[in-house]
Amino acid sequence: MEDGNGLKPMDAEQLREQAHKMVDFIADYYKTIENFPVLSQVQPGYLGKLLPDSAPTYPESLDHVLKDVQEKILPGVTHWQSPNYFAYFPSNSSIAGFLGEMLSAGLNIVGFSWITSPAATELETIVLDWLAKALQLPHDFFSTGKGGGVIQGTASEAVLVVLLAARDKILRRVGRSSLPKLVTYASDQTHSALQKACQIGGLNPELCRLLKTDSSTNFALSPDVLSEAISNDIASGLIPFFLCANVGTTSSTAVDPLPALAKVTRANKIWFHVDAAYAGSACICPEYRHFIDGVDEVDSFNMNAHKWFLTNFDCSLLWVKDRTALIDSLSTNPEFLKNKASQGNLVIDYKDWQIPLGRRFRSLKLWMVLRLYGLEGLQTHIRNHIAMAAYFEELVGQDTRFKLAAPRTFSLVCFRLLPPPNSEDNGNKLNHDLLDSVNATGSIFITHTVLAGEFILRFAVGAPLTEVRHVNVAWQILQEKATALLVSS
């Protein structure tokens, strides 16, 4: 039995001592993060062979546990904060985000209604208003308007809650028996979270229309294609009710034309949701704000502060134009939660704006990020990543063996290795092999997509520690692996 047996559930002096050790461990991790293979190299089931098959009967020391983290857990971690991480989209952590997360964990409140911790509710309202102002969102999206902002866990939760609100709003008008006739629209570039939301919402999966996009619109949704689909569905006796548009799609950061789409949704009384999970952060920079022009006409807007806004996961920001639609769909009022403030309609109870009852004090970390970096610091952070992506785009453009596969809008570059002239599959296997050989080095991590039938490599710049030197090394690895593959083919 080790000396950890004296650890109490919560004791201020023990917390001070143990937490110092943990902070040192995490700081050392960040100091040495470049030494790890970015993509974990372990095989499925590796950890079961390293850990015992039952929990310890007696307490162990923190030092012993941290040794196991170092030797057994970290090899099975894919290092999202590594400066050589260029996969998916970024998931930023920062000192400010970490400190806010630590404070939230320390207070450990469950803030489902105002009375359970007034500061948790009121701070959330204030920071969401701060950001609505920074993004120049319409007045209805502020807490002083008819809607307001709320922190969800992820963009998947955000689209689900607004889909449910839109569903219930239309069913109140046309009757609940019309549920099987409701039609949802989005482009074929939309995140699979929408389809999942339709499944959970009891909607007919065949009526989730993913409308075709192509390179002529840079993979953005065409308002004419949307209009035609809606007309056809109405003619068939169906009921269009929801559009999810994108500002920065997952595959290529395509931006759907919000003002033109809004004309179509307005004419057909359709709920218009905008998913700007990744690119919404960039819109605090004046030179990128135009990408959300037309947001005045939408019913809901979502961005992930935990992607590119230096706020530790999870922290997805959702604004709605009409909060009553959300509350009507999601609220419950059991006896054990009744209290004067709620009954008097004097406060917001965020439990009625989300799926679960319980919620963490997530606004603390967003508040700390906004205060410790300021809007100017956050703008600099975003511009820096975009500049590095533009530099990578130049490097790709200078090598005639490669081609750019979609325009670079933010900090994602889509590109591919050109196949030899008589390639049977248009170089799809070649690019798949390039992806695998690059990731197998452990030195960098990139991911792929498919655009217009072509296997495309994605290079997303966004980790907080990434510098130009990391971009240069990544390009060097890509070139070397491309040379080796072209020689062997």
Automatic annotation (TrEMBL):
<dbReference type="GO" id="GO:0030170">
    <property type="term" value="F:pyridoxal phosphate binding"/>
</dbReference>
<dbReference type="GO" id="GO:0005737">
    <property type="term" value="C:cytoplasm"/>
</dbReference>
<comment type="similarity">
    <text>Belongs to the group II decarboxylase family.</text>
</comment>
<dbReference type="InterPro" id="IPR002129">
    <property type="entry name" value="PyrdxlP-dep_de-COase"/>
</dbReference>
<dbReference type="GO" id="GO:0019752">
    <property type="term" value="P:carboxylic acid metabolic process"/>
</dbReference>
<dbReference type="GO" id="GO:0016831">
    <property type="term" value="F:carboxy-lyase activity"/>
</dbReference>
<dbReference type="Pfam" id="PF00282">
    <property type="entry name" value="Pyridoxal_deC"/>
</dbReference>
<dbReference type="InterPro" id="IPR010977">
    <property type="entry name" value="Aromatic_deC"/>
</dbReference>
<keyword id="KW-0210">Decarboxylase</keyword>
<dbReference type="InterPro" id="IPR015424">
    <property type="entry name" value="PyrdxlP-dep_Trfase"/>
</dbReference>
<dbReference type="InterPro" id="IPR015421">
    <property type="entry name" value="PyrdxlP-dep_Trfase_major"/>
</dbReference>
<protein>
    <submittedName>
        <fullName>Tyrosine decarboxylase 1 isoform X1</fullName>
    </submittedName>
</protein>
<dbReference type="InterPro" id="IPR021115">
    <property type="entry name" value="Pyridoxal-P_BS"/>
</dbReference>
<keyword id="KW-0456">Lyase</keyword>
<dbReference type="GO" id="GO:0006520">
    <property type="term" value="P:amino acid metabolic process"/>
</dbReference>
<dbReference type="InterPro" id="IPR015422">
    <property type="entry name" value="PyrdxlP-dep_Trfase_small"/>
</dbReference>
<feature type="modified residue" description="N6-(pyridoxal phosphate)lysine">
    <location>
        <position position="307"/>
    </location>
</feature>
<keyword id="KW-0663">Pyridoxal phosphate</keyword>
